[in-house]
Design brief:
The chain is mainly beta and about 500 residues long. The protein is built from four helices and 33 strands. Keywords: Dioxygenase, Iron, Metal-binding, Oxidoreductase.
Amino acid sequence: MAGFPQTPYFIGLNEPVGQEVAFTGLEVEGTIPAEIRGSFYRAVPDPAFPPKFADDHTLSGDGMVSRLSINADGSVDFAMKFVETARHKAEKALGRARFGKYRNPYTDDAEVQGVDRTVANTTPVWHAGKLLMAKEDGLPYRVDPRTLDTIGSYNFGGALKSETMTAHVRVDPVTGEMFFYGYEADGLASTKVAYCVVGADGQLKSEQWFDAPYCAMMHDFTISENYALFPIYPTTADLDRLKAGGEHWHHQPDLNSWLGVMPRYGDVSEIKWFKGPKGVFCYHMMNAWEDADGLLHFDQCLSNTNAFAFIREPSGIQMQPWEIQGGLTRWTVDPRGPAGDVAESVIGPPGDFPVIPAAKQGRPYATGFMLTMNPDRQGPPVFGGPVLAMFDMLVRLDGMDTAQPQITQALPMQPGWCYNEPLHVPSASHEGWLITFVDHQTGENTFEHFAWVLEAGAIAKGPVASIRIPTRLRPQVHGWWVSQAQLDAAE
């Protein structure tokens, strides 16, 4: 699109699309299993206008929600719309960007000071019959799950007092409750965190506030059957830096990480802070679970620094992508004993976007899936996404409830192909299915896009169905699968 900076965050697969679309009767190669009926919702950052500052990046983009609908007769539709946030409306009114640096309101135009500046671009959250588009810097926006029209900012009927809500909620598979938190709960660079529990009926049951060890980017968290876990990594905010027009986040490699653990129905005064290694960072966690001895295991995609160059470089950390080290890592603590150091072990490959069956959330689990890089790739990975390199191998790990999980299956991509985050769809007769959007670079700046359906127990066989998406797409951040039965029961 014209007028955008020709930086890595706005070219190639990252080129803004800025187009709302609706298609019916998509082309399908293969057969979509009859038990897969419902909608795959995607959250994509997609700026409607060139940014105010040329050094902006992917994650500042306006929220775009899309819906891949697999209908009762097996036909497939696709639609995509902007989330009509207050920020998006304010910029549409003048036809240009009015909000400045990523999560720094001190760099906004004067006339939009005080306007809700979240872009609602990270995760579509489904709970209690409602679809919310969430980003951790503000409140979510409710979206009509059928039309994708924006209903408005959502605060649980006025019950939520936190100014923010994470995009990474956890839903208990037994109780149906939703657990979430909001960091910087009372303003920029605050250490305040709000921990919240929402009933299966969608009503906010509790909201408790506590202080984190320091103001950190708390992108994700986990629950187990009996505990809530709050990981803290040293990507930090500073109010004076923001007021001076600087970046919201700097990474501080000399600071310790921490893992806060509390009974999930307890009081925040019961949090115990277990100390982790210095300088590490994780964006996404696979699961947390308790073993037969009462030990608590926390499985995360951990690296030795923040994966985003737009955070590392302003922090003075000059690293090439291949210098970033990490892997699927387990921290183990005894929640019944005194707080001490975490016990750490590497249990899987480097990578991200871990997924497990929803029924195993917070429970011992045998199997997990994640994206990684193909070690046998011939040529560079596809250029795109916020880390500027797309994943090109999907792996399945078994033995996740043991000390040494193993990769048992893998589906590497051919050169020029890459994955977006997969979602798990349950099955009545086997281990279920994975659905993932894939991108294929066909020329210097030409791409085609598909949604693949894979058998979770046999990913190495490749897709049982491939759905062609007849429009240009940007890389997604996260998605959510909603079954047709859930949609039919929604208000």
